[in-house]
Design brief:
With 642 residues, this protein is α+β, with helices and mostly antiparallel strands. The chain has ten helices and 34 strands. The longest helix has 19 residues. It is an enzyme of class 3 (hydrolase).
């Protein structure tokens, strides 16, 4: 049994560390040239913890989730047999592609119905009750840091914040969180990990396991070897993008080793091939018994960082269009035929001319091989994927069974380039079906939202993608008139950030290809003197790049001034002056961009006109605030042409 020496290259994200990590490219290296070991001993080697878990989608995913209920059910149906784990990202701060709301915006605030991920976890549980749930903070609310951009100022307070989320998940949604992390790809604090363990135990959450540190193998592994208490309280060492390899210290801890974030690749056939290799080789090379793919669904604007880096694509809630991409079926080769608790057999390895094979068993007579042969089994179910040219392409196709009836119980399997085989005793495999999705359509050229939603299904408005800050539906109890229901920016303190975040809040919407557009919105500044809000067009960046976003931004401030800038940070100033504006009063802002000229109006009266703007040529519409402050928006309207 042999595979060809060539395979598609696997692109890897360049943002992982300030300096490009030397190990990153190896994560998709399919060929190490080592000959396989013959035979399968009956004794297991390592427990299988769920070979591929779901990576929680980033902020922006609500643009897909918030479509009509039938569309939600269709997309959720793709989770049915997709894998054994869902990871929930937390923190009211920007991830790679946007923000997700915290359950505690403020110290005395608790709300366990914000965001889409409660819904996502419950839908996953409906389809697979045995699915594993994990939580990982990417950031923390600002009040945790007591004025510092650091979550470890008060260890008890941070542990309490995490504990309340776990308790709330059970109390309000009947969700049992199985694992909790420390801080995504940032520093860990040894004492905090110990305090967190004690806090969880005190609350009767002994079953919740700790995974650390969701970054590199070191220094967490060495720290555990030097600290017996730390070694005891950490259950899993999780590394991100480990390149299929681990380090000596990690293995010496005798703890479970996970690739706790991996993949991050365009969901083309090249990306699918990458995923297929790391699912096998993370164990073959590095003894990692779980691989969590980031991200689950590419349901954010495609021009944001890591566009289409999900296992499937659903980025048009306005049309309902979605695509079940090839990585879904590549992952099914493993996840449909194994479960958490299965064991890897000792004989795993590389094929002589490239590729790899693993074998797993539940200890009850069932066996799954990806890809390999086995003796003394009369029949094996065969599932097949061929990536590449459309005319030669197959995705998760069931082939004729293999009957092993001769005395040697052997068979020959010839592998060609870009193929995956699963051989298993299980008969549960099913590709399933889904209705033909609606055809793809661009974002509507005329779009408006008055935010008049009394009991919203989600806390955020559809199609808006918060990049910093959190914009939520809001009810003005004291305003029975036109602005009773609004969209409100609800963070009044900059979060403890995971990456270089903007100092303003901003939510984008629309079509990145828009060039000529009119944006109109009613705005309400809540902070006297220092408060400010803006509307914008041609915004050209988002996600981890939002801090350097360019565009045309029309600002008004509570001190009675206005400003027109060419960037979110406010360094490029086109115009400024005075206007009759104060806090606690509604105003209507209008921004008109046509060709190389732009104009702005306040309450229907022109404030500035025909200011030259040559860059950028196109981008999204947006709303936002000058700082992390309370402000409201209503009657949003955009009319655009490309």
């Amino acid at each position: 049994m042999a595979a060809p020496a060539s395979a598609p290259s696997c692109p890897f994200p360049s943002w992982r560390q300030p300096d490009p990590p030397p190990w990153a490219p190896e994560s998709c290296d399919p060929h190490n040239g080592r000959a396989p070991t013959a035979g399968f001993p009956a004794t297991p080697r390592e427990s299988h913890d769920g070979r591929r878990g779901f990576g929680g989608p980033r902020r922006g995913a609500p643009t897909a989730v918030r479509a009509a209920g039938a569309r939600r059910r269709v997309r959720a149906g793709r989770l049915r047999r997709a894998g054994p784990g869902v990871r929930r990202r937390r923190g009211s701060q920007r991830r790679r592609d946007g923000t997700e709301p915290s359950h505690m915006h403020y110290a005395l605030d608790e709300n366990f119905f914000r965001g889409y991920e409660w819904w996502l976890m419950k839908e996953a549980k409906k389809r697979n009750p045995n699915i594993i749930l994990m939580g990982l903070p990417w950031s923390f609310p600002g009040w945790i840091g007591k004025g510092f951009n650091w979550p470890y100022v008060n260890l008890q307070l941070t542990a309490y914040y995490i504990m309340t989320w776990i308790v709330g998940a059970k109390h309000y949604h009947d969700l049992d969180i199985d694992y909790i992390g420390i801080w995504n790809e940032r520093s860990f604090d040894i004492n905090y990990i110990k305090v967190l363990r004690r806090m969880l135990n005190y609350q009767g959450l002994d079953r919740v396991k700790i995974i650390a540190s969701d970054n590199l193998w070191e220094p967490i592994s060495a720290s555990m070897l030097l600290d017996s208490e730390l070694l005891k309280v950490i259950d899993v060492i999780g590394a991100h993008y480990p390149g299929t390899h681990t380090v000596k210290d990690a293995k010496l801890t005798k703890k479970k080793l996970w690739s706790s974030e991996d993949f991050s690749t365009l969901n083309s056939d090249v990306g699918a091939g990458c995923l297929g290799r790391i699912l096998n080789q993370n164990y073959v090379n590095g003894y990692m018994t779980a691989t969590i793919a980031w991200n689950l669904v590419a349901s954010y604007y495609e021009q944001l960082p890591y566009g289409r880096c999900g296992l499937m694509t659903a980025q048009e809630p306005w049309s309902g269009h979605y695509v079940v991409e090839s990585p879904i079926w590549v992952s099914a080769h493993t996840t449909q035929f194994t479960q958490p608790g299965w064991y890897y057999l000792k004989t795993v390895g590389h094929l002589e001319k490239g590729g790899s094979y693993v074998a797993l068993t539940d200890g009850l007579g069932n066996l799954t091989i990806i890809v390999e042969t086995m003796s003394e089994i009369p029949e094996l179910q065969v599932w097949y994927t061929k990536l590449g040219k459309p005319s030669e392409r197959y995705l998760f196709k069931q082939l004729d069974s293999l009957w092993l009836l001769d005395s040697s119980s052997t068979f020959t399997l010839e592998l060609q380039e870009d193929e995956i085989f699963t051989l298993t005793t299980l008969t549960v495999g099913s590709k399933g079906s889904y209705p033909l999705p609606p055809k793809s359509e661009p974002f509507p050229q005329i779009y408006e939202d008055d935010f008049d939603v009394d009991y919203p299904f989600f806390s955020e408005a559809p199609n808006f993608a918060d990049q910093t800050g959190v914009f939520e539906y809001f009810t003005n109890i004291e305003d029975p008139g036109e602005h009773r229901f609004t969209l409100r920016q609800v963070l009044n303190q900059r979060p403890i950030t995971w990456a270089a975040d903007a100092y303003n809040t901003i939510s984008i919407i629309g079509d990145y290809k828009w060039s000529n557009l009119t944006v109109r919105c009613d705005v309400y500044i809540e902070t006297p003197e220092k408060g400010g809000v803006f509307i914008a067009g041609r915004v050209n960046k988002g996600g981890i790049l939002i801090r350097s976003a360019r565009g045309i931004f029309f600002w008004i401030f509570a001190n009675g001034t206005y400003r027109v800038t060419g960037d979110l940070a406010g360094w490029v100033i086109y115009a400024l002056g005075r206007v009759d504006v104060t806090a606690k009063k509604w105003y209507t802002l209008t921004l008109i961009i046509k060709g190389r000229l732009s104009s702005g109006m306040l309450n229907g009266k022109t404030v500035w006109k025909n200011i030259p703007v040559s860059f950028p040529k196109n981008g999204w519409a947006a709303i936002g605030t000058h700082s992390f402050e309370f402000a409201q928006f209503d009657n949003f309207h955009v009319e655009a042409t490309r």
